[in-house]
């Protein structure tokens, strides 16, 4: 009998521990994840009609809560310049949850964060309407508008503009975009129709500025050659005076296929090339040769040092996919991957981070969208400081690559990115999309090259080579000039 009683008590103790553990997980460990889950509407319903804090750019709200004039739901979320900022702000919907900063900064915007405890108590004691904090962004409104205007309405593309010394995001835009007001409306039928339409529109992704307009990682093409070059110099097997093989076509090992050089440049004029010439003309075969010589692990290790395949954490308070360097490659695949094709993938932000590291002497800063958080009484409760994310390469290698990237703009195929009186460093990329004749066209670079103040990364999807060249380097030039004139 005593044994049966003991067994019963043990079973009860185990059940009690399991229940207590489940409650503890829900209340403590998993609370943030459950509360921020896009499809968990309970937290939203509890605060949906409150005076939610504004999201501010350049001193002006781009999102705010406006009075409805009704007692049943006193406030309605309003998005000003909605398409321009949708990829950053996301939406806040009673029926479809929240995305973007509306999701990640929910604690501050509702006034529920620990930093705003004093404000919550004050509002409660005085019987005031609950009010959230405002979140000011690092975005420059003029640069954001310019960048958005540089992507044609009939094209898919993204532009990321940063300060490489601090990691501050000055602009981040994509097309196509959408109107968050249509999802945030109190009219359930209208919200459902708008959500269905947005989901069915090709090219729209609800956090499109981070992972590209389609939400998928993209082949980076020749901008990935900056990784190859860094790996080569870091290996000690190559230096600034190295002579690289530059055949017009390279037979891919174990395959009947060949890897050709870029047909639109001057690569064919030299059977051997310096790093400067190979980057200026974006020749493929020298960098494929480097990858075959160093091996996939060396290239992969350097890609990881730039952030490829690394846990993104809470970068930008937005969804983010790290770039991908494929594993288990055969020699033919390695050669293709080294020039940004095969299964090498990246987002615009990933390429921007890589370029920021080169511009900043090898040190990659954590990208930042949040300039400050201000309580309802105008007290600044948080003002994030610049933060080092990782070291990607040495200062000497970064300086050497910067010198070559400057040549790409002054003497190579990125001349369209030039700014009169300013040294600009840049690199173009053209990633082929099968046999369609269309490409993803890239530009990444920074200025001034000797004291970087601004980095620009642009990708335009599904265009021919000529169209891509017109929409990338010249657009970067306009952005460089606009930022440097401020």
TrEMBL record:
Domain of life, source organism: Bacteria
Domain Penicillin binding protein A dimerisation: 52-135
Coiled-coil segments: none
All residue ranges annotated as the Penicillin-binding protein transpeptidase domain in the record: 157-484
A family per Pfam: PBP_dimer_2
Name of the molecule in the record: Penicillin-binding transpeptidase domain-containing protein
């Amino acid at each position: 009998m005593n044994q049966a009683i003991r067994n019963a008590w043990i079973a009860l103790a185990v059940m009690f521990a399991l229940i207590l553990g489940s409650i503890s997980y829900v209340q403590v460990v998993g609370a943030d994840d459950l509360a921020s889950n896009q499809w968990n509407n309970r937290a939203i319903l509890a605060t949906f009609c409150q005076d939610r804090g504004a999201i501010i750019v350049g001193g002006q709200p781009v999102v705010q809560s406006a009075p409805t004039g009704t007692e049943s739901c006193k406030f309605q979320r309003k998005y000003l310049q909605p398409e321009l900022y949708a990829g950053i702000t996301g939406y806040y919907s009673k029926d479809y949850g929240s995305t973007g900063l509306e999701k990640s900064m929910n604690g501050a915007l509702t006034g529920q964060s620990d930093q705003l405890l004093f404000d919550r108590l004050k509002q409660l004691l005085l019987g005031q309407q609950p009010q959230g904090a405002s979140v000011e962004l690092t975005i420059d409104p003029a640069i954001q508008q310019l960048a958005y205007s540089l992507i044609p309405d009939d094209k898919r593309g993204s532009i990321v503009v940063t300060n490489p010394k601090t990691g501050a995001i000055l602009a981040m835009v994509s097309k196509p975009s959408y109107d968050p007001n249509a999802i945030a409306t109190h009219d359930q039928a209208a919200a459902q129709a708008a959500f269905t339409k947005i989901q069915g529109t090709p090219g729209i992704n609800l956090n499109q500025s981070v992972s590209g307009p389609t939400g998928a990682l993209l082949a980076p093409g020749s901008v990935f050659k900056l990784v190859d070059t860094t790996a080569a110099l870091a290996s000690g097997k190559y230096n600034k005076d190295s002579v690289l093989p530059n055949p017009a076509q390279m037979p891919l090992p174990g395959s009947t296929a060949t890897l050709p050089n870029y047909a639109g440049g001057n690569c064919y004029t030299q059977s051997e090339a310096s790093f400067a010439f190979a980057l200026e003309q974006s020749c493929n075969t020298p960098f494929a040769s480097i990858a075959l010589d160093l091996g996939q692990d060396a290239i992969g290790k350097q890609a990881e040092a730039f952030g490829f395949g690394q846990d993104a954490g809470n970068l930008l308070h937005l969804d983010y996919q790290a770039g991908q360097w494929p594993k288990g490659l055969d020699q033919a695949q390695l050669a293709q991957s080294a020039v940004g094709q095969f299964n090498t993938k990246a987002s615009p932000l990933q390429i921007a981070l890589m370029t920021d590291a080169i511009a900043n002497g090898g040190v990659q800063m954590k990208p930042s969208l949040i300039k400050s958080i201000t309580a309802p009484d105008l007290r600044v409760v948080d003002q994030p400081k610049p933060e080092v994310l990782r070291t990607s390469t040495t200062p000497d290698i970064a300086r050497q690559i910067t010198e070559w990237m400057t040549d790409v703009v002054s003497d190579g195929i990125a001349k369209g990115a030039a700014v009169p009186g300013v040294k600009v460093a840049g690199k173009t990329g053209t990633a082929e999309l099968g046999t369609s004749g269309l490409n993803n066209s890239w530009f990444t670079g920074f200025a001034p090259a000797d004291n970087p103040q601004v980095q620009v990364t642009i990708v335009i999807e599904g265009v021919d080579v000529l169209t891509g060249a017109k929409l990338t380097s010249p657009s970067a030039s306009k952005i460089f000039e606009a930022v440097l004139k401020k």
